[in-house]
């Protein structure tokens, strides 16, 4: 089995999310979890940008922008939700963002369920886009 790319980094991020979920529980808006996760990520001394505006390209042409909840260590996109349950549409959306940004690894984290839900997402289609790295 091949080594997961950025495994240690994604494990740290998930650990931070678990701390937030255990302290806050469910029922808050996404922005509350985002602010708390920002605090935990900084405690881990990880370099992160919150609500980073990223360009979206189509055939090497910029066609718009989208804000990603977190962009950590210049490598991992983190998309947050505060829903009762993650659905396949949320996973597809997160993968679409990874592909649009040309990133390899992302996390989809849901704080709205009784237990923290998270999915590690892989983009095997593209190399990182030069304007993002």
Describe the overall structure.
It is a single chain. The chain is built from three helices and five strands. The chain has one domain (7-122): Alpha-Beta Complex (Lambda Exonuclease, Chain A), CATH 3.90.320. It is 35% helix and 31% strand. It has 133 residues and is an alpha+beta fold. Strand 1 and strand 2 (61-72) form a beta hairpin. It has a five-stranded mixed sheet with strand order 1-2-3-4-5, sandwiched between helices. The relative contact order is 0.18. Helix 1 packs across helix 2 (30-43). The model is unreliable at 128-133 (pLDDT under 50).
Question: Concise description?
Answer:
The chain has 133 residues and is an alpha+beta fold. It is built from three helices and five strands. It has one domain (7-122): Lambda Exonuclease, Chain A.
């Amino acid at each position: 089995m091949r080594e997961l790319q950025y495994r240690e980094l994604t494990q740290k991020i998930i650990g931070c999310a678990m701390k937030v979920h255990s302290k806050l529980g469910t029922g808050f808006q996404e922005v509350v979890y985002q602010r708390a996760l920002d605090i935990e990520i900084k405690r881990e001394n990880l370099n992160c940008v919150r609500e980073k505006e990223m360009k979206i390209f189509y055939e090497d042409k910029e066609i718009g922008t989208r804000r990603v909840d977190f962009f950590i260590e210049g490598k991992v996109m983190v998309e947050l939700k505060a829903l009762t349950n993650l659905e396949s549409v949320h996973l597809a959306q997160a993968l679409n963002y990874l592909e649009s940004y040309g990133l390899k690894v992302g996390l989809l984290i849901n704080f709205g369920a009784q237990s923290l839900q998270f999915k590690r997402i892989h983009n095997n289609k593209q190399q990182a886009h030069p304007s993002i790295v």
